[in-house]
Structures are given as structure tokens and as C-alpha cells.
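Tutorial handout. Part one gives the primary structure; part two gives the three-dimensional structure as C-alpha cells.
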Amino acid sequence: MPKTLLFSIGVAAGAVLAYLLDPDRGRSRRARLADQAAARSRDVSDSVRKTAEYQKGVARGVIHEVADVLRPEQDYDDETLMQKVRSEALGYWDGSDDVEIDISDGMVQVTGSVDDEAARERLIDLIRHVDGVSMIDDRLRVDA
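Part two.
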């Protein structure tokens, strides 16, 4: 290394030591420096913890998605499927009560009348998402 670079490093190190070891204010400067280092360490620790928690949640979501794909679809008897459709579909549907549901071998037949096309589509979509429904026979009338 060139002598001038070594000299510059020595001067800088001496200035830092003089700044930190000053008999009048050196103690407070060292304390402030230690506090700032501790704060940076806590910030890094918190950031790492938050990132780890987020990634843990992402991993849990992926596990649930994979489990849903791998879980075999269950075959329900007609009575059980009727109860599932009533609770999972009709329970969330806010339309009229002029709708009847019949089930035979997993096929759901929906008859009756609804107020508008949007209500019909909403009801059919709710029924479609019930586990065990293989087919929907839509015989709903739209009362205009």
C-alpha cells in the first residue's frame, strides 16, 4: 500500500478515536453510538421477523391450495346433498322463497321464480360451488 494511503487511514482512525474518547463529551457520543447501533439491530430483527411471518402465511396458503386439489371429491347421498345445498347455497342467497330444489344422483333441479336475471345467476353460482353437486338443471323463471 502506498504510504500516503496508510497515513490517511491512520489520521482518520486517530480522528475517530479522539472524537469518541474526548474527556468532555466522548462518553455521551459513545452512548449515542451504542443506542443507534442497538436501534438498527432491532429494526433489522423486526424486518426479518415480519418477512418470515409473511412467508409463513404464504406457505400455509400454498399448502391449503394443494390440499384442496389433492382432496378427493366426496360422494354424498341425495338427502345429505340436499342439506348441503340448503345450508351452503340457499343460506347465503337473499332472494325470494319461491324456489324449490330437487336432487337425484348429485344432479340438482332448481324450479320456481326469481325477481331478475342477476338473482338467478347468483343462485345458480352458489349451488355450483357446493361440494358434491355434479350437475344443475336450471328451470327457474324470471318474473319481470
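Part three, for discussion. Helices lie at 3-20, 26-70, 78-90, 117-128. The chain has four helices and three strands.
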